[in-house]
Amino acid sequence: MWNIDHSYMLVTAFVLLTSCKHAILHEIKEWKECHFTSSCLCKNVPGSEHLIADCSDKDLLRIASFPNNIQELSLRNNDISTIEDGIFKGNSLLTTLDLSFNRISQIRKNSFKGLTNLLSLNLSNNDLKYENRSFEYSAFYFLENLKNLNLKRNVYTSFVPDLWKLQSLESLSIDYVADKIAIFDEKFGYLKNLKIIDLFGFTGNCKLTILTEKTFLFLPKITHLNLSKCKIQHIFQGTFKLMRNILELDVSLNTCLRFETLENITTDLQHSAIEILKVNYIHGILEKTTVLKTSHIWNLQNTSIVRLEAVGNRIQTIESGAIKYLPESFKSVDIRKNMFSVGKYLLDLTNMSIASLEMADNTSPLNVITSYVEECPIKEKTITINSENNWLFTKLPILELLKNTSGKFVFPMPRNLINVSLRSNNLKLELPNLSFSANEIENIDLSDNVLHTWTGPITDTFRSIGLILPTDVDGEIFQNLRNVVYINLSKNKITNIPNLLFQKQRNLERLDLSVNMIEDINFKLSHMKKLTFLNLRNNRISTLSKDAINELDSIAKTNTNLTIDLGENNLVCNCDSESFVKWIINTPTILHRREEYECKTSQNTISLLRNPREVFKTIQKECMSYEGLIIALTTGILMFIFILCGGIVYRYRWKLRYLYYMVKVKWHDPEPKSDNKDDRLYMYDAFVSYANEDDTFVHHKLLNNLEKTGGIQLCLHRRNFLPGNDIATNITSAIHNSRKTIVIMSSNYLSSYWCMFEYNMAKMESIYERNCENILFLVFYEQISACDLPLKILELVHCQSYIEYPNDEYGDVVFWEQLQKAIKSF
Ligand SMILES: *[C@@H]1O[C@H](CO)[C@@H](O)[C@H](O)[C@H]1NC(C)=O
Ligand SMILES: *[C@@H]1O[C@H](CO)[C@@H](O)[C@H](O)[C@H]1NC(C)=O
Ligand SMILES: *[C@@H]1O[C@H](CO)[C@@H](O)[C@H](O)[C@H]1NC(C)=O
Ligand SMILES: *[C@@H]1O[C@H](CO)[C@@H](O)[C@H](O)[C@H]1NC(C)=O
Ligand SMILES: *[C@@H]1O[C@H](CO)[C@@H](O)[C@H](O)[C@H]1NC(C)=O
Ligand SMILES: *[C@@H]1O[C@H](CO)[C@@H](O)[C@H](O)[C@H]1NC(C)=O
Ligand SMILES: *[C@@H]1O[C@H](CO)[C@@H](O)[C@H](O)[C@H]1NC(C)=O
Ligand SMILES: *[C@@H]1O[C@H](CO)[C@@H](O)[C@H](O)[C@H]1NC(C)=O
Ligand SMILES: *[C@@H]1O[C@H](CO)[C@@H](O)[C@H](O)[C@H]1NC(C)=O
Ligand SMILES: *[C@@H]1O[C@H](CO)[C@@H](O)[C@H](O)[C@H]1NC(C)=O
Ligand SMILES: *[C@@H]1O[C@H](CO)[C@@H](O)[C@H](O)[C@H]1NC(C)=O
C-alpha cells in the first residue's frame, strides 16, 4: 500500500518537474542570449529575421555596436554616460531605442547618425540638464522619422532643445519648469505633426505656474494635452482657444487652480473637438466647498464632449438647471470624492443621457486628505454665495420635490444610465420610501453606505440603508432596476433582506451582499436564473434554512455557474445544520474557497469545512446519539407514566371494576329512586359467596338452615343468576340487590378467582353504596391459619364479625342460630 502511494507521488513529482522544465525551456527559447554579446537577451520579431534585444539592467558603461538586423533595443537602466558618434550608423532598421535610466549628459549631432527609421526614442531619467552643453545644435538631426520622444526627468528649467528636424514627431514627453508664464515658443512651430504633449508632473519635472493665450500659441494641432500635476496656479481665458483639435485635456492635480477656473477652460473649448475633459483635484482640499455652476459647463453645450472627470473637487451641489447644458454626446461622468448633498439638481438627473455615473466616496473631506496636497499662494477670496445657492443651507423641503404623485420618494436616475457607483456615499438624504426612477441600469454599486446613508438634514431621525431595506416588503426600492446585472450592497449594515427586494431583477448576474449582518437567505432569488456570483462573505449566517437551500437549488438546476461565497460567517456544524452540511456536500453550486470556511461544532471547536463529508459523518454520529438519548428519555418517561397509571389502576382496580359493573347493572335495570338508602327494598336478604367445591354445604345445610328454617331469602349463583348476563355483571348485580353478603371462607374460596372477585365487589359495595356499613359476613367453613389469609381478609377478620363452622352436632345447632340472628340483626 505504502509503496504504491510512494511511487504514485514520485510519478507526480516527475511529471510536475518535467512540465516545469518545459515551461522554462520554452521561456528560454523565447528570449535567448544574443549571438553578438553575452550581456543581452535576444528574440526574433515574429515572422522575420529581425531581432529584439534587451540589454537592460546590465551595468553597461558604453554602447557596443549592434548588428544591423536589430529592430528594437533596450539599454534601459545601465551606466551609459556617452553615446559615441556614429555608434548606431549601421542600425537603419532600428525603430525603438530605450536609453532611459542612464547617465547620458550630452547628445551630439552624430549621436543618432544612421537611425533614419527610428520611431521611438526614450531618453528619460538621464543627465541632460546642462541646457546648451547637453544638446548640441541639431541634436536630433538624423531622426527625421521619429514619432515618439521622451525627454522627461532631465532638466529643471524651461529649456527645450532644438526640435526643428523632428518633422514626424507626434508625441512628445518633456520637462518644463517655469516660475512665471509658461511659453512653448516658436521651436514647436516646426513640429507640424505633433499631437500629443505629455507634461505629467509625476513622471517628469513640471511647473507651469501661469498659462495664458501665449502658452500654446505654436501648438494649435494638439489633440492630447496632459498638464496633470504641473503646479499650475492660473489658467487665463484664451489658453486653449486655438486648440480646435483637442480631444483630451487633462489639467488634474493642480489644486491651486481652484474649481472656478473650470469656466476659463470650458470657455476656450467651446468650439473645439473636446471629448474627454479631466479636471480632477483642481481645488484645494482645505478650500471651501464648491458649486458646479451653469457658467462652468454652459460653454460645453455645442461640443461633443463624452466624458467629464471632476474627482475630488469638494463639489457640494450643482446649480439647478446646469446639467441641461451638457450635450447629447455626454455619456459618462466621474465625480467621485466630492461632497454632494441633496439638492434640486437631482431633478435634472432624469433628463441626462449619461450611461455611466461614478459618484462614489462622497464621504467626509477627511477621507480625501490623503491625496495630493500642494502649497498655494494666497489668492484673494472671492467666494460669494448667491441667492440661487442659498437654498442649499436652508431647510427647504427638497424631499417633497422627489415625491411622486403617490407619495413615494423616487430617486431620479438618468434614463440611459447603465453603470452607477454610489459607493461610500453619505448623501444626506432621508428617503424611507425610496425607489429609483425608470432606468436602464445594469451595474449598481451601493456598497459601503454604512451609516447615515439616505439620511436627511430635515428631520432628526435618520435611517441607514440597513434599516430601510427590511421594511421594503413589496420590493419597490429596486423595482425600476430591471436590467441590472450587478448590484453591490456590501458594507451596508443590512440585517435582513426583504423577501421581495430583488423580485424584478431577473437578469442579475452578480450580487454582492458581503460585510453586512444578514443571518439567512430569506429573500427570493430562484428567479435569478443568470446569477453567477452571490457574495455573502462576512455576514452572520449560521446555517441556511430549507427555504434558502431550495431557492439556491432551483437556480442550480438550470445554472451550474452559480458561485456562492459564505466565508467569514458564523457557520455551525451541529444537529440543527445537518441538512445544510449535507447540502454543502451535494450541491452543484460552487462554494467559493470552501476550504477556508470555519464552522462551530457543538464542542465549540472550529472545524474547517475542508472535508465536509467527514464533518457530516461526525454530525450524523452526534445526532444519532442525540436521537438515542431522546428515545431513551421519552421511553423512560412513557414507562414511568405507564407504571404510574398501572399503579393507580391496580390500586383502584376493584373500585374501577365495581364502578364499571355498577354502571352496567344500573343500565340494565335502573332501580327506583329512594331518598333514604336504608329504606331500600332488597331483592334478597343475603348473597352467598362461595367456592364451587363447597356447594354441597351451601346447597344443603346452608339453604336448609337459613332459607327454609330461618326464612332468609338467599341469593345463590347457581340458582338465582340470570342466564345470558355475563358473570361479573351478575355478581355485581346480586351483591347490590342483597342486603348482606355471606362469605363461605375456605381454602377453596381463597384460591378461586370469582370468589375473590365477589369478596372485593362486596367490599366496594359497602364503601360506595352503603355508607361504609358492613355488609360482609364471614363464615369460616374450614380452619384456616391466619398466615394463609390475605391481609385484606385478615383485616376484616380482626374488626368485623365472623363465625366459624364447628362441624359437630351440638355446635351445629348453635351455629345456625347465631348465623340467623346475625344476619337478621345486621
Ligand atoms: C520611457 O521610459 C520610461 C521609463 O522607463 C517609461 O515609463 C516610458 O513609458 C518610456 N516612454 C516611451 C515613449 O517609451
Ligand atoms: C543657449 O544657446 C542659445 C543660442 O545658441 C543662446 O541664445 C542661449 O543664451 C544659450 N543658453 C545658455 C543657458 O547658455
Ligand atoms: C496624463 O497622465 C496621467 C498619468 O499617466 C494619465 O492618467 C492621464 O490619462 C493622462 N492624460 C492624458 C490626457 O493623456
Ligand atoms: C479667467 O481668465 C481671466 C482672464 O481671461 C482671469 O482674469 C481670471 O482670473 C481667470 N479665472 C481664474 C479663476 O483663474
Ligand atoms: C450653441 O449653438 C446655439 C445654436 O447654434 C447658439 O444659440 C448658442 O449660443 C451656442 N452656445 C455656445 C456656448 O456657443
Ligand atoms: C425633461 O425633458 C422633458 C422633455 O425633453 C421636459 O418636458 C421636462 O420638463 C424635463 N424635465 C426636467 C426636470 O428638466
Ligand atoms: C459598464 O461597466 C462594464 C463593466 O464594469 C463595462 O464593461 C462597460 O463598458 C460599462 N459601460 C459604460 C457605458 O460605461
Ligand atoms: C410612484 O413611485 C412608486 C415607486 O417607484 C411607483 O410604484 C408608483 O407607480 C409611482 N406613482 C406614480 C403616480 O408615478
Ligand atoms: C411611506 O409610504 C407609505 C405608503 O406608501 C406611507 O404610509 C408612509 O407614511 C411613508 N413613509 C414616509 C416616511 O413618508
Ligand atoms: C462591492 O463593494 C465593495 C466595497 O466597496 C468592494 O470591496 C467589492 O469588491 C465590490 N464587489 C464587487 C463584486 O465588485
Ligand atoms: C456557464 O459558464 C460558461 C463559461 O463561463 C458559459 O459558456 C455558459 O453559458 C454558462 N452557463 C450559464 C447557464 O450561464
Write the layout of secondary structure elements.
Elements: H1 2-30, E1 32-33, E2 41-44, E3 51-54, E4 70-74, E5 96-98, E6 120-122, E7 148-150, E8 171-173, E9 176-177, E10 196-198, E11 206-207, E12 209-211, E13 224-226, E14 232-235, E15 248-250, H2 262-269, E16 276-278, E17 290-292, H3 294-297, E18 307-309, E19 315-318, E20 332-334, H4 345-348, E21 356-358, H5 387-390, H6 398-401, E22 409-411, E23 419-421, E24 434-436, E25 443-445, H7 465-468, E26 486-488, E27 510-512, E28 533-535, H8 546-558, E29 563-565, E30 571-573, H9 578-586, E31 590-591, E32 598-601, E33 606-608, H10 612-651, H11 653-668, E34 684-689, H12 695-709, E35 714-715, H13 717-720, H14 727-736, E36 738-745, H15 747-751, H16 753-768, E37 776-780, H17 791-799, E38 802-804, H18 809-825
Parallel strand pairs: 3-4, 4-5, 5-6, 6-7, 7-8, 8-10, 9-11, 10-13, 12-14, 13-15, 15-16, 16-18, 17-19, 18-20, 20-21, 21-23, 22-24, 23-25, 25-26, 26-27, 27-28, 28-29, 29-31, 30-32, 34-35, 34-36, 36-37, 37-38
Antiparallel strand pairs: 1-2, 2-3, 32-33
Bound molecules: 2-acetamido-2-deoxy-beta-D-glucopyranose (NAG) (11 copies).
Describe the protein.
The chain is α/β, with parallel strands linked by helices and 826 residues long. 26% of the residues lie in helices and 15% in strands. The chain has a 22-stranded mixed beta sheet. The protein has a five-stranded parallel beta sheet with strand order 35-34-36-37-38. A hairpin with a 7-residue loop joins β1 and β2 (41-44). α9 runs antiparallel to α10. It starts with a helix and ends with a helix. 37% of the residues are buried. Residues 1-25, 382-396, 427-432 and 450-464 have low confidence and may be disordered. One 2-acetamido-2-deoxy-beta-D-glucopyranose is lined by residues 234-237, 258, 260-261, 264. Residues 423, 445, 447-448, 488, 490-491, 510, 512 line the site of one 2-acetamido-2-deoxy-beta-D-glucopyranose. This is TIR domain-containing protein.
